[in-house]
Automatic annotation (TrEMBL):
Range of residues in the leader sequence: 1-26
Gene3D superfamilies: Bordetella uptake gene, domain 1, Periplasmic binding protein-like II
Transmembrane segments: none
InterPro entries tied to this protein: BUG, Bug_dom1
Domain of life: Bacteria
Organism: Marinobacterium iners DSM 11526
The protein, known as: Tripartite-type tricarboxylate transporter, receptor component TctC
Amino acid sequence: MKKLTKILSIATLAISPILASAPAIAEYPERPVKFIVPWPPGDLEDIITRMIAEEMTKQTGTPASVINKPGGGGIVGALDVAQARPDGQTIGSFVADILTTHIHSGNAPYDQTTFEPVGIFLDYPFVIATKADAPYNNLEELAKYSQANDVSLGHFGYQALPTALTFKAAKQEGIRIASDSAFDENNCSTLATGDADIINTTTQLILSCLKSGEVKLLTSITQERLSIAPEVATLAEQTGITQTLWNGLFVKKGTPTEVKEKVAEIAQAALKSDRIKGLSNTTGAGIYWIGDSAAEEMIAKDFESSKELLEFMNK
């Protein structure tokens, strides 16, 4: 027995230097993290993603930053995440279009299995807005007005879900759109310069002219009425069209579960901040957290419904 103990002791001493020199298992994040926002800076997904990146830096001590990569209706930025390693070092902040209509239309160099959701955090306060002095206050009144007057629409492109939802509502309610144009940003100036009579956009992009009273809302494409305009009926209330717009965090498929859980934990901590609550109160945005299988179910449902919308747009 003494001989065996001696042998084990010698073996342990021999292995100890090896164990001491072996590197510890790296803890995520190993190096600076990039959050890819495939749109210009300034809108809600950009602002909230920056807050999440700040929280990651605060919690981990590893730099995390937001990179804006607009182009192709979000496809350029999404491609960065699609081509990244599945290690959580590159995270996409994606609007619903990137995972739905772009894939259906064949524009995307990725497919439905390329990304995995970390979580969905935003019900976009998308709206249809017009100048305050327009002689209509809702979609029914707009429909009547459009029968005798030309109405021009400003939107974010034909593959954007808000555009498809607006055209579907127009057809259903009898709104005659005489002309339409796509803009990189639909903001106060789009209406002020007369480039469009009505626009679909987010409250964040028209906040200043909403506050000044220069612009009013005809409807919101949201789950609930906006807290900043509770008198304005939602698109679902006015037309029965229930689909809304969301934004979430996505990683390359195959990213380790523990990495996704860490990102989710950090994101949820950021969403509880007073700054986020203030942003929600100011813009009317629905800010929440839907993760795991619930997010996958939500995406799958919207994937199917967006296919119908795209078919409608292509008729």
